[in-house]
Write a structure and sequence with these properties.
Blueprint lengths: L8 E5 L4 H13 L2 E6 L2 H10 L4 E5 L5 H4 L2 H9 L4 E4 L14 H25 L5 E5 L12 H21 L5 E7 L21 H16 L10 H12 L8 E4 L8
Parallel strand pairs: 1-2, 1-4, 2-3, 4-5, 5-6, 6-7
Bound molecules: NADP nicotinamide-adenine-dinucleotide phosphate (NAP).
NADP nicotinamide-adenine-dinucleotide phosphate (NAP) binds next to helix 1.
């Protein structure tokens, strides 16, 4: 079966873990080819080795402008063409206003907003006509919590930037869309959120606190569970190949945004 344009030869940032890895593996399983990007080469190589000839590893720190430049061209040269790009790399640092650390603020803006905007601009030049880009945003773009100011601002900015890119890309046949996941069971939410001044607990106390945190997050979803990376990957791959969708954000959140 012929794969939809957008899902044939795809660059996936954050492809070494979590949602990005699930996207890369789904595309590979469907018969497409993928370049996975992230900082940790060993993670990328593990994904590559699980899908020989289908997934290729390209280590890159996306927060470093010099490393980021020309990334899509490199992926295109590796794959012999490029029709899809997914930006799943991201970082979150929970800090309440008044305690937002400068480095954490800047790194969240750089990775969650500046990098995908710049990659999106490169996609306008490099992707084949009919191709698609999907940015992984977050429900926190639409409903921030007390400690998410920097992350929410970056992800909301990403959704806005996606719309401008979609308008610019439309005449060239390059589509831009986003997904806004609720809480997904990946490494990102397995980090204990501490109160200001608190030291990291260890051993059983750490495990109990983390268990309680995950249980509280699960309870935010009317469908009664956290998302799986594969739930989000299915939505991402759909949008990559959705030939009449551009400028849209697909919420995939177990009903989280329905809550009052
Ligand atoms: N999990 C959730 O509940 C949730 C909810 C809504 C949205 N999201 C979004 O979903 C996306 C994927 O997150 P995830 O849940 O799959 O968590 P994850 O497994 O921690 O994935 C984050 C990925 O980003 C990569 N990354 C981080 N900094 C990078 C940098 N400077 N350069 C290149 N790559 C970098 C990481 O690889 P390296 O560390 O090897 O670089 C990692 O593969 C993120 O954009 C996140 O904001 C997650």
């Amino acid at each position: 079966m012929k794969l939809p344009v957008g899902t044939r030869r795809v660059l996936v940032t954050g492809g070494g873990s979590g949602i990005g890895r699930a996207v890369a593996e789904r595309i590979a399983a469907d018969g497409g080819e993928v370049v996975v990007v992230g900082r940790r080469a060993e993670r990328l190589e593990a994904v590559r080795d699980a899908w020989p000839g289908r997934i290729h590893a390209l280590p890159c720190d996306l927060a470093d402008e010099a490393q980021r430049q020309g990334l899509l061209e490199r992926a295109r040269d590796l794959l012999g063409g490029l029709d899809g790009m997914v930006h799943s790399a991201g970082n979150v640092v929970h800090q309440a206003p008044g305690r937002i650390d400068e480095a954490a603020l800047r790194s969240q803006l750089e990775l969650n907003l500046v990098a995908p905007l710049r990659l999106g601009e490169e996609a306008l030049r490099v992707l084949e006509s009919g191709g698609g880009v999907v940015f992984v945003a977050s429900t926190l773009a639409f409903r921030p919590v007390r400690t998410s100011a920097a992350y929410s601002a970056a992800k909301a900015g990403l959704v806005a930037a996606m719309a401008s890119l979609a308008l610019e890309g439309a005449p060239r046949g390059v589509r831009f869309n986003a997904v806004a996941p609720g809480l997904v069971d990946t490494e990102m939410i397995h980090e204990l959120r501490l109160d200001p001044g608190e030291t990291m607990p260890t051993g059983v106390e750490y495990e109990e606190r983390l268990g309680a945190q995950l249980e509280a997050l699960r309870g935010l979803h009317p469908l009664g569970r956290l998302g799986k990376a594969e739930d989000v990957a299915a939505a991402v791959v759909h949008l990559l190949g959705a030939s009449w969708s551009t400028g849209t954000t697909l919420t995939i959140d177990g009903g989280l945004l329905l809550r009052e």
